[in-house]
Amino acid sequence: MKQTMHLSLCLGALLGGLLSAVASDLIAPGAKLEKLSDGYKFTEGPATDKEGNVYFTDQPNDRIVKYDAATGKFETFMQPCGRANGMRFDAQGTLIACADEKNELWAIDVKTKATTVLVKEYQGKLLNGPNDVWTQSDGSLYFTDPFYFRKDYWKRPNTKEQDGEHVYYLSADRKQLTRVTDDLVQPNGIIGTLDGKILYVADIKAKKTYAYDIQPQGKLLNKRLHCELGSDGMTIDREGNLYLTGKGVTVFDKTGKQIEHIEVPERWTANITFAGKGKDLLFITASGSVYGIKMRAKGIF
Fold it and tell me: How is the chain split among helix, strand and coil, in percent rounded to 5?
């Protein structure tokens, strides 16, 4: 009995070690999570430009902050900023922002800081509040529209004008807005694969993340469960691994198997992106701080 127990413990230790080795393969050897900056109210929406710099929001303070990946310095880029939440750069280098103050979607010219309202309603009714966005190489984009009542600054009633919480597609010419989901509880995080063939949407209230096949004109087909975990923001690496946020960072491979979890010492991890010239810095917005950890895996942006 003792020999059997000892063998079982040894096998368990060996298996645990192998699993640990597989999990830690995403992170650069010896890399540790580091706090890069703090003193914010609530950080969100990190978007990476072509040079690897990150623009993120300090949402309650109504400002966008820029992180210079080369120098490690932080500076306010825009304040006020329409209470920007989730953001992403498009292929032309324009910053697309979910402007929460008036439930709009903005395009921000980074050089001039001029803003253009891309979307402000759907079928004549006010959106719930665009929350996160993913842009495609042709200029089209998808965004999520959950309802989180902002009692501190919204002047609208605490009711939805839309009939639910959905995902929308904006055409490449930015003229045609289409609703592409109608059966999610509260879509939040959104990201697509590098080849533009698969879209991932996190239904945060349902605690699930789904995958869809992207079709012409933005249609989504073949909805399938990717993993039993929702997410606030999301990112993806070049190997197709999906990074979800909430309680730290949880990583799932292309099959939906969990392969990594990164603990973050904050009450909530809101969003995530890859940054740096080498696309190997995992940049994490978490409550009042932002963190970074060097990765072996490289991201897309």
Answer: 10, 45, 45
More confident residue, 40 or 194: 40
**108-140: b or e for each residue (b if 16 or more CB lie within 10 Å)?**
bebeeeebeebbeebeeeebbbbbbbbbbeeeb
Tell me the β-bridge partners of 202.
209
Torsion of Cα atoms, 94 then 164 then 62 then 273, to 10°:
-50
- The CA distance from 131 to 106, in Å, is 12
| φ, ψ for residue 234, nearest 5 deg | -145, 160
pTM to 2 decimal places: 0.91
Q: Kindly report, residue by residue over 273-300, the tens digit of the pLDDT.
A: 999 999 999 999 999 999 999 999 999 8
Which is more confident, 261 or 23?
261
Q: Which residues pair with 261 in a beta bridge?
A: 250
d(CA 26, CA 23): 7
